[in-house]
Design a protein that fits this description.
33% strand, 1 helix
């Protein structure tokens, strides 16, 4: 079995603890995947532990903005935290969308901590065949260039 090692993982975790949780004015980044699937452009964001009502999706012109907030779980007074590595606070990601995408028909689904956006490719951007008609400029014979 292959194992991926990341020598900076511990350093990243410590830096995140020093910087603190994201705020609405300084949100933390959220991991995402983006790929094309058929006639859709798909963007998937990891948001484990975030309630669906704490996710905000906006599109203005060709700028897609996703913001989410993970709030601390309600605890009783007798809880003593031993280890806290799961980041809390605000997460955000902005993506510039190509003009070839139809931002009017974006579909959003949220399941098992993954927000999936499906953005259809606009009809005008899809490849199409152009037929050649018999019109002006199409002669029936060969033309020779005399020199």
């Amino acid at each position: 079995m292959l194992m991926r090692t990341d020598p900076f993982r511990e350093l990243d975790r410590l830096a995140q603890q020093l910087v603190g949780p994201g705020t609405w004015s300084r949100p933390s980044a959220m991991p995402m995947d983006a790929y094309r699937e058929g006639d859709d452009y798909v963007v998937a964001f990891d948001l484990p532990g975030v309630a669906a009502d704490a996710i905000d999706i906006d599109v203005e012109r060709n700028m897609l903005t996703v913001k989410a907030e993970r709030r601390p779980a309600a605890r009783t007074d007798d809880v003593k935290m031993e280890l806290s590595e799961r980041p809390l606070g605000v997460f955000s990601r902005q993506i510039v969308l190509a003009d070839s995408l139809d931002t009017e028909r974006i579909q959003a689904d949220y399941d098992a901590g993954v927000l999936t956006l499906r953005i259809p490719i606009a009809e005008r951007a899809k490849p199409r065949k152009i037929s050649i008609g018999a019109g002006v400029g199409t002669g029936s014979g060969r033309k020779e260039i005399a020199g």
